[in-house]
From TrEMBL:
One of its GO terms (molecular function) is zinc ion binding. The keyword Nucleotidyltransferase does not apply. Residues 25-36 have a biased composition (Polar residues). This is 6-bladed beta-propeller. It comes from marine metagenome. PANTHER family: E3 UBIQUITIN-PROTEIN LIGASE NHLRC1-RELATED (PTHR24104), PROTEIN LIN-41 (PTHR24104:SF25). Pfam families: NHL (PF01436).
Length: 337
């Protein structure tokens, strides 16, 4: 769940997010069925090639070490991939004193080219990383779950190079347990209950999936001012139980991964319920590509699923690779597209 999970997260992002990959994948499948007979194979990596030993050690890893959990990443360009890590560990798996290596940037060869160590004090569990596709300055957003080292649950917006923190949404009096959060049915606009995910709209407004405990979608304007929210705990339309994936299509329809309820719910950008796709096991990530295909991560199945906008399953790939040394391209609870 450490070094292997880093490789998994990066493979998924390149497979799903980079232009052109989808067509290649489908063509590869067609050639197997329509062209020359190919014997054997189990298609465990979906027709994509995994790059072994892609990830490189951090420059300060001079003694025994291992990575903490890798929870998210964003691709700024092919030579600048921003990765969020729950710190690194010593040989016994214990956190280093003071924490280190929470946000790093790697190039296409897996070399660490930046380390945002100047911000280590405000991170404990950075959860997801984003760059809005509508932002010409390509600010970097990070959802921080808090939960230790005096770090609060918060939404952070940085300049692209990480030199400046330009927005911070936080209530230092946030709940410290799920029971406490769910005892308050009307939390404030910045009183988060283990926030999880973000999505962006063309006008600069953004949506927060809040998340593990609060079971709501919160909408803010481009300046971080509260606009509205929808959702509550439950399993009916417009209710949620652990929001862990949000994406917006070109018609501003909002797709929400309702994780414990094993479904995707679809809304207007102002929260009107439109549709639901049922029987999707543990949907922890949702991504809509440039061709409007909807990609979903099933963490329990260790699988990447491709749907049409109407909810029809087109294709899937993925196999668990976390035991007995794993295998290149094997997945172990993938987390962000």
């Amino acid at each position: 769940m450490r070094l292997e999970q880093i490789s998994v997260a990066l493979i998924i992002t390149m497979v799903v997010a980079l232009p052109g990959c989808q067509g290649e994948n489908q063509t590869g499948l067609q050639s197997r069925s329509q062209g020359a007979t190919v014997k054997g194979g189990d298609h465990r990596t979906g027709g994509y090639d995994a790059v072994e030993n892609w990830w490189r050690p951090a420059p300060d890893h001079v003694g025994p070490w291992t990575w903490g959990q890798v929870s998210g990443l964003a691709v700024d360009n092919p030579d600048r991939i921003i990765v969020a890590i729950w710190g690194d560990r010593n040989a016994q798996g214990e956190e280093r004193e003071g924490g280190s290596n929470y946000v790093v940037v790697v190039d296409r060869n897996g070399n660490i080219v930046e380390n945002w160590s100047q911000w280590d004090a405000i991170f404990n569990k950075p959860h997801q990383v984003y760059i809005s596709p509508y932002d010409p300055e390509r600010h970097v957003w990070i959802v921080e779950r808090g939960g230790g080292r005096g770090v609060n649950m918060q939404i952070l917006k940085f300049t692209n190079d990480g030199s400046e923190l330009v927005m911070r949404l936080v209530d230092p009096n946030h709940p410290t347990s799920r029971a406490e959060a769910r005892a308050n049915p009307n939390p404030g606009p910045f009183t988060y209950g283990d926030p999880a995910v973000l999505a962006f709209l063309p006008d600069g407004s953004f949506l927060l999936g809040d998340g593990y405990w609060n079971s709501r979608i919160v909408k803010y304007n481009a300046d971080g001012e509260y606009l509205m929210e929808w959702g509550e705990l439950g399993n009916g339309p417009g209710q949620f139980d652990l929001i862990h994936g949000v994406a917006v299509d070109r018609d501003h329809r909002v797709y929400v991964g309702d994780r414990t309820n094993n479904r995707i719910q679809i809304f207007s950008e102002n929260g009107e319920f439109i549709d639901e796709w049922l029987d999707i096991s543990d949907p922890v990530g949702v991504f809509i590509d440039e061709n409007e295909w909807v990609w979903v991560i099933s963490a329990t199945l260790n699988r990447i699923l491709k749907y049409s906008r109407d909810g029809e399953l087109q294709y899937y790939w993925g196999a668990y690779g976390g035991t007995r040394g794993g295998f290149p391209g094997g997945l172990s609870r993938p987390h962000q597209l």
